[in-house]
Amino acid sequence: MARQLNVAVLGATGAVGGEFLKLFESRAFPVGRLRLLASERSAGKRLMFRGEEVEVEAVRPESFEGIDVAFFSAGASRSREFAPHAVAAGATVVDNSSAFRMDPDVPLVVPEINFDAIPEGCRLIANPNCSAIILLMAVHPLTKLGRVERLIVSTYQSASGAGAAAMRELEEQTRDVLEGREPKPRVLPHVYAFNLF
Does some domain include residue 56? Predict the structure, then answer.
């Protein structure tokens, strides 16, 4: 049996936080103790994990005491604020925000491609943007066949990248357009519905 890990999820009430919980369950991730962390506004909510309700706590610097692995997906400012506390407490942080992606001292890792880029004892790991990950998963095998000289890439960034509120807004905007109303952006910077070109 795999060693049980004490796990924290920062941004637990967001779209990605929810996906972390689903993945932990579906892949039988060896979670011992689970600490769900979010903003003060989300504290007290209860989320289901492995058939039990787990209460969401407001994140504080001391939230990471006793944590082995912390998954961060609460935005760059929260990552910059709390990753140092988590690392100091002995946790390994896997950060899903843009906070450390360009930091030369933080490995930028797609496990299927460059897991070995994580040095021994490393406590802070960043991952690329979701579009970059998908692109790299397709391109990496091609690099084994020969040198890739040049890539020209266009991406359409998803509303989900801006969180659950943005996804709800996209649904509302889509409904507005289909029902002949003028959509109004509140969360997103502009209208996303039917806005590809």
Answer: yes
31 lies in some domain: yes
Mean pLDDT by 10 residues, the chain (197 residues): 91 94 97 98 97 97 99 96 99 97 97 96 96 93 91 84 86 96 92 85
62 closest CA partner among 79, 85, 84? 85
Q: Give the largest Cα separation in the chain, rounded.
A: 58
What does the pLDDT read at residue 159? 83
* 51, part of any domain: yes
Total domains, the chain: 1
Map residue 61 onto helix, strand or coil. Answer: helix
CA proximity to 54, closest of 78, 90, 18, 89: 18
| φ, ψ at 97 (rounded to 5°) | -95, 180
pLDDT of residue 197: 62
Whether 164 is covered by a domain: the verdict is no
> Alpha-carbon distance 36 to 81, whole Å?
17
pTM for the whole structure = 0.84
**CATH classification at residue 86:** 3.40.50.720
- Report the Cα–Cα distance between both ends of the chain, in Å, rounded: 52
Question: Using a CB cutoff of 8 Å and minimum separation of 24, what contacts does 146-152 make?
Answer: none
